[in-house]
Amino acid sequence: MTTNINPVIPGFHPDPSVCRVGEDYYLVNSSFEYFPGVPIFHSRDLVRWEQIGNVLDRPSQFTVRPGREGASAGIYAPTIRYHDGEFWMVTTNREDVMKGHLIVRASDPAGEWSEPVYTTGAIGIDPDLAWDETGTCYLTWAFPGGIHQATVDPATGKLLCEPRLVWSGTGLAHVEGPHLYRRGAYWYLLVAEGGTGPGHGVTVARSDSPSGPWEPHPANPVLSHRSSPHPVQNTGHGDLVELPDGTWAMVHLGVRPRGSFPESHVNGRETFLTGVDWVDDWPLIVEDRYDVPQAPTAFTDDFDAERLHPRWIAPGADPRSFAVPTPGAGLRLSAGRTPEGREAERLLAVRARDSSWTATATLPQGDAALVVRIDDAHWAAVERQGTTVSARAVVGPFDQVLATAEGITADHPLALRAVANTQQYSFAKGPDDIHLGYLADGEFQALAAIDGRYLSTEVAGGFTGRVIGVEGLGTDALVTRFTYAPDPDPVPATPMAMPPSTDS
Of the listed 176, 354, 375, 432, which one is catalytic? Predict the structure, then answer.
């Protein structure tokens, strides 16, 4: 039996939802405070995925808030479905939660999605859409205390009945993330329970009706890695899909914690894949069904296209409002935060996706910074003002310049490097070290390094992961090249001997 430890979509891509149309699969993820919202991917085999766009890519479709207050707000847990010739996506924007959930649709998932309609009266998070054989559409969502449901007109968002509680789960904490399916004689309700941390898991129930009453699976949770040595933890929030041959699979989120006890994860919750068998009309999760290789993540962007690649995002702002690519001339960034500022104002970023990586930015004009961040209170940067380059770290109320170098001209790319910790039995190691520096003659020149725990979810809190980005420091700046590449993890050191037990 193999242990699958590779995500199919690495980096901060949580709460996956998937649907199939013919031989094609489409998958969406939560995006929280980052714009554009709801990244959408395409695959033909469930293992290799390519981002084809973002569902919510216009300010008219949703709002996000910058700053510390906006962190881990925004877009929660979308669901994507295909029905009657159209793709439908439903999600919750925490900034507008009292409007209800928002629903958009498209005939081409890589194209333009509609303006949203809102399900006024359905308050909560993690909505799902499902249709029965008569065409009735069921909106199912999480609200404190359990899973709620109402019938809905998805074209207008109008609820067609009063919402009601349909299931309270199995007794674990935080029942959320519902998905409703019909298979054979039964309807199935798949939910997440246990909280989106170490206790997370997937539970399921079935019924003769889409509204219950629900019979819980006798072996719930059907997926959980809690209290196990598995290198992928916090597994939960699954979504099922039927393959063309009649077999089934499930995508779900998980994290890859590393470092000293109690370990830390830094790239957020990622998307993983399992197989599903059916035994006595119950789903059985088969975790080793798919051989998932390490996903290709390296890229170089010279900004030669007229539009930004869909991988580019910004916290609390539309990147197109401040980042303008000009083919052959690079990317013009409008002035962002001041050199003394702590909160990102116009940060153009991508998700970190590997345990070890190097990112560089060539910035021939303007004062600028290359930043790795969780949120505005947890970040580190290489900042260049004139010919002075500084390594700076912000952790909560602490803000420190760690080192500086003089005489570093604009033809020296700024550089960041994450070096994974592989010393399994060290008692004083974070998940990695973040090295801050620049390139000289193509070689990395480190100014300073910080423990990666300071830029982990366990320290910062919230639901996101690290992003890496560039911003102008009080002036416009020009970016002519950005590179990101995974580095091989260092060879593990010989494990130190474990200390003798003190138990009597």
Answer: 176
Q: Note if 23 is an active site residue.
A: no
Torsion, CA 358, CA 67, CA 35, CA 121, rounded to 10? 140
pLDDT of 109 above 70: yes
Q: Measured at the alpha carbon of residue 74, what is the angle toward residues 140 and 238, in degrees to the nearest 5? A: 45
Three-state DSSP state, 290? coil
- Of 15, 263, 287, 343, catalytic: 15
Of 168-177, 307-316, 432-441, 483-492, which gets the smallest average pLDDT?
Answer: 483-492
Rounded CA gap, 70 and 72, in Å? 6
What does the DSSP assignment read for 149-199? EEEB-TTT--BSS--EEEE--SS-S--EEEEEEEETTEEEEEEEES-SSTT
- The neighbouring-strand residues paired with 285 are 276
> Does residue 493 have a pLDDT over 60?
no
Q: Which residues in 362-378 are b (16+ Cβ under 10 Å) and which e?
A: bbebbbbbbbbbbbbbb
Measured in degrees and rounded to the nearest 5, phi and psi for residue 30 equal -65, 155
Is 15 catalytic? The answer is: yes
Measured on CA atoms in the order 404, 406, 409, 411, is the torsion positive or negative? Answer: negative
pTM of the model as a whole: 0.95
The tokens for 138 are 């069921």
